[in-house]
Amino acid sequence: MERYAIILAAGKGTRMKTHSEDISKVSFPILGKPLVRYVLDALKPLGLSKIVTVVGHGGEHAKKIVEDSSEVVWQHVQKGAGHAVMQAAPVLAGKEGETIICCGDTPMLTPETLGALFEAHEKNGNEMTVLTFITDAPHGYGRIVKDSKGNILKIQEQRDCSPEEELITEVNAGAYVIDNKKLFEYLDKLTPNNAAGEYYLTDILGLFASDGLKVGSFSVSDVEETLGINDRNQLSVGGKILQKRINKKHMLNGITIVDPDNTYIGPDVEIGNDCEILPNTIILGHSKIGECGRIGPNTYLEDCEVGNDVVLDNVKAVGKTIEDGVKAGPFVEIK
Question: What's the whole-model pTM score?
Answer without folding.
Answer: 0.94
